[in-house]
Amino acid sequence: MSRHLEITLRKAETLKEKPDEGNLGFGRHFTDHMFVMRWSVGQGWQDAEIRPYGPFSLDPAAMVLHYSQEIFEGLKAYHGADGSIILFRPLDNLRRLNRSAVRMCMPEIPAEEVLEALKQMITLDRGWVPQAPGASLYIRPAMIATEAAVGLHPANEYLFFIICCPVGAYYAEGFKPTKMFVEDRYVRATAGGVGEAKTGGNYAASLKAFADAKAKGCTQVLWLDAAERKYVEEVGTSNIFFVIGGELVTPPLGGTILPGITRDTVLKLAADWGIKASERRISMEEIMAAAADGSLTEAFGSGTAAVISPVGEFIYKDKAIQIGGGQTGPVAQRFFDGIQQLQRGQMPDSHGWLVRAA
Ligand code: COI
Q1: What are the structural domains of the chain?
Q2: Which atom of ligand 1 is nearest to the CA of 306?
Q3: How confident is the model at residue 175 (pLDDT cuts 50, 70, 90)?
Q4: Does the CB atom of residue 177 touch ligand 1 within 6 A?
Q5: Would you call 148 exposed, middle or buried from its count of C-beta atoms within 10 A (0-12, 13-18, 19+)?
Q6: Residue 166, ligand 1, Cβ within 6 A
Q7: pLDDT tens, position by position, 326-349
């Protein structure tokens, strides 16, 4: 691990046509290059390469295909006000990937060196960073177990890669209040499980609830705790915040919730802006009572893909709970605007969150 990572650069001979920035959707178009490196027992990380985007060849016995030993991350790059390309808190994502790696018995990556490789690749593909308002370059690092073996054990070989895609809003609604289904049959994570790791299985396990919620006209699922199905945990693709009696409230990180980097950004900005915020357990009973007495004025999701996404309505046990008259509230709007300005270098970076790639 302590060996310096040598990065080979192999440029694409033909460049792809870029998509229309006004119609990007989310995660459908991929840039010209990707970063790849391999790990094996005794050798550590090797064969680090920025190379043309393209398929891998995998043995059908590759362990990821059988036992889901996989982790990933999501971060973004933006066009800065000064013409630079800006990455937002990239080391926080790479370090979180390493925490997921430890939980999933996978090797940690040399985060600082991988960040240098990422900056080099983004500089090469800088023409893919969209300039349209609200659009960005979504960066997806991932690691998979590639050892060909069917017996269950932590794999002896892994592939780490980073791909990038220009994206617009994650939800088809854009920055508009979503309708959310509060799931009380299925659960996302249990204490002692892998809920706080960013591993594909957590997302695969969420699909049935998501499909059922969609059939009921909802955009997303709000997960409850596995033990009592009483306390709010997180949304399918983001963390969750409520504004109750003027105070920002979000569930605490206790091992079952993804430690979101946007969640942390919201909490730190709330402190900067003098907004009272607390991390505490919130029951659906409390949400319903606060909605009934008018003290619950807003709810919004926070995530890299979702950014800040207001919630207009929760569906819980066949009842509709409307939030803020179904409109985007001032707190969600302030975080949405503030975070976007910060990420594009239009606000002072007092926390040192911005890393310029080019
Ligand atoms: C992200 O917000 O980066 C995620 O990984 C969520 C994913 C479902 C797009």
Answers
A1: 8-167 (3.30.470.10), 178-343 (3.20.10.10)
A2: 2
A3: confident
A4: no
A5: middle
A6: no
A7: 999 999 999 999 999 999 999 999
